[in-house]
Give the backbone structure.
Amino acid sequence: MKNSRKNNGGRSDEPARRREAKLDYPVRLLVYALVATAVCQLILLAVRGNGVEFVGRENGPVELAQVVMALFTSGCLFIAAVQMPVGRTLLVLCGCLVGYAAARECDSWFESVFFDDAYKYLAGAPLLGVAIAALVRGRKQLVGESAALLRTPSMTIFAIAGIYICTLCQAFDVPHLWTAGGVSPSPETTKAAVEEFAELFGYLLLAFSGVESLAMAFANGSVETGSVEAASNEATCIEFPTHQPQPVSRKAA
């Protein structure tokens, strides 16, 4: 009976393990790369068919796609905050930030329908209220749980995206960047400048990954056990704090 139960249990667990492997983090990274490649190819096809103004058009398809992606991200973060037993405060804060970014991308629509800077009050104010409520509610667990959550893949990718958007994309939005050097003598010169500038930030992110590789290589877990998993855990400390109940003293009893 025991052997049959073990065999039955093993058979039932095998499909679950296969399903879990299909959604494993390296597989998801591959899917992300394929989706990013597909998006880039679609933009190239759109530019060839409709011109470069297609990309920079205000309230155009590209900006609409940005809003949809931001809203999708914000929704995912809020759902994760509801499901997660820990780290809810940071997830709610990140969801509010991305939700505000989505509203910011729709600033011209808000102004045309309502009034100037309407997105700040109609979207920003409620999101700020939600963020403040989350901070007040989770103020005691905020530091410990956020420190652990920031070391997970979801928050790592979120932070990298934030670095990219808040540095490179904001630099491209500065008019002085394009007017300081005067009118470019040829489109090839403009293309080369944009390419090298964008690649500089890409290689900067790669340099950050090199530092993290060294942190993992020289972690105590790597030296003591020679295990990649132990080195990763030691370098990133992916452990959520658990609140254990205080033992009841004899006097209180």
Remarks:
- Residues 187-217 form the longest helix (31 residues).
- The chain has a mean pLDDT of 77.
- The radius of gyration is 24 Å.
- The CA atoms of residues 89 and 133 lie 9 Å apart.
